[in-house]
Amino acid sequence: MPQLNPNPWFYIMILSWLTFSILIQPKILTFTSTNQPTNKATTITKTPSWTWPWT
């Protein structure tokens, strides 16, 4: 059964992960997002209690 032979697939997997981690990942990490996260003040809104007609 050829799918159990790890010789070519293990090499391909290692090569692809090394390519991603060495070449592609640093290029992706240099991009800056356009919307930087900011801390918003939490506002507590007071909602009126519901008046049920049957109580």
Automatic annotation (TrEMBL):
Keywords: ATP synthesis, CF(0), Hydrogen ion transport, Ion transport, Membrane, Mitochondrion, Transmembrane, Transmembrane helix, Transport. The chain crosses the membrane at residues 6-24. It comes from the Eukaryota. One of its GO terms (biological process) is proton motive force-driven ATP synthesis. It is found in: Mitochondrion membrane. The keyword Ion transport applies. Belongs to the ATPase protein 8 family. This is ATP synthase complex subunit 8. It comes from Psilopogon virens (great barbet).
